[in-house]
Write a structure and sequence with these properties.
GO molecular function, one term: ligase activity
Structural class: alpha/beta
CATH superfamily of one domain: ANL, C-terminal domain
Strand order of the largest sheet: 10-9-11-12-13-14-15
Organism: Pseudonocardia zijingensis
CATH architecture of one domain: 2-Layer Sandwich
CATH class of one domain: Alpha Beta
Helix content: 25-40%
CATH topology of one domain: GMP Synthetase, Chain A, domain 3
Number of strands: 26
Protein name: Long-chain fatty acid--CoA ligase
Number of helices: 17
Largest sheet: 7 strands, mixed
InterPro entries: AMP-bd_C, AMP-bd_C_sf, AMP-binding_CS, AMP-dep_synth/lig_dom, ANL_N_sf
Keywords: Ligase
Shape: globular
Distance between the termini: 72 Å
Amino acid sequence: MEIAAGIPALRHASAPALGSWPERRARIAPHRAALVEGERTVTYAELADRTARLAHVLAERGIGPGDRVAYLGVNAISVFETYFATWLLGAIATPLNYRLAAAEIRYMLADSGASVLVHGGDADTLVAATGADVPVLRVGPELDAAIAAADPLAAPPRVTLDHPAILLYTSGTTGRPKAAVLTHGNLTWNTVNQLAHVDVLSTDRALCISPLFHCVGLGQVTLPTLFKGGSVEPLASFDAGAVLARIGEAGITSLSAVPTMLQMMVENPRWETAELGTLHTVLYGGSPVQERVARAWLARGVQVQQGYGMTEAAPGVYMVPRGAGADRPTSVGVPHFATEVAMLRNGEPSPVGPEPAELLVRGPHVFTGYWNRPKESAAAFVDGEWFRTGDVLRVAPDGWADVVDRVKDVIISGGENIYPAEVEAVLVQLDAVADAAVVAVADARWGEVGAAYVQLRPGADTGVEELRAHLEAHLARFKIPKYLVLADELPRNATGKVRRIELRARAATEFAGGSR
């Protein structure tokens, strides 16, 4: 028997060549493990069967092509089953961030027009607090019984690469979240890009530690591994020590993470003794990793490969090739296989180069717009085809790129551009500094100046004057923040990114009128 696995979009798009539904259950060994969760293992045969039955359950509740099926809960096998069942129906998966407040979840349910909300038991309290008038399916014995009693969906509708597959809400660091609409083609081409950059085998066992409501958790390792017939183990929560232990226990070969996770593992007491021998692929994205963290992984025999991208590109744009980059530990590498890049200069797409400028991207993995936001969708593109990333990059003659900063984060002080990421990179060179974030503050004389919020490591006694002296030794004077603040911790969103919008608001209050 042949069974479905990987990304349904690719097979749906090829349906005429693959034959009728019972004959086109993909060519992967039915008995191999697809998903592992604790003591539970779901084979590809079982995953195909449960997916088809859950699709029938959803169809009986009126779900069909184009409808939105929301999911709220931690990483689990049920997330994959819900996504795949939704896609079989031609509906649109809409994962929600379980770390948000009830009002934010209620907003996303209304904004997406979700027809049903599937949720894990971990989200019971949050679902009740939303007060949203949306039919609910709770993952548990009752839903399992309904799946077991249902017949497999007999005749799925035809789904092509152009059909929308998923709504991924942006992190909302600058305001109300908006949903990027990714098609089956976007997901498929991102997978092709990943496979061109990273060797993925059917024998791989990937650990899914980044949340599946985020593009990193979904697109960097997880879908490519399932596409190749390997197994994926979703973790409900991240614990650095537990992840290090699990790598050795289960023979984990690959994982993707955000930089904060990589740093927490390096700083965990288990780091030096953890068995990492099976681990051949560690990808990360979301923000640059600190150089000392990248070098710590390299010292343990594991090259961490930085991937640069964004939700709107499903997400990959650049990646460091395997076996390269040891001398460029913070570079984002070179463009993916099916990715075209340019730079925005004088309002026009121009060739990439060493002078920093906003990066433009196009390719079959790049989305076409935001859900129900035609004006914002149009504004996101130049000439209707080049997506404006909002990131300032610098590209060397050999094609290797470095992310300089976000366009909106650049501080213009006395006519000079100051890139906060450059200042932050100098601050975290100090062993005493755990992390740092620099934001703009209005200034009557210079227009804008920098305010640096610095989080020290536990037990560190470094003071503001030592930080300033370090900056003066490494940066031009105009780049040094006017204000330096020691913070207990930096505000972050669910994926570990610093919420600069909160720091800007704090700085505007603390330093209004240049009070310090």
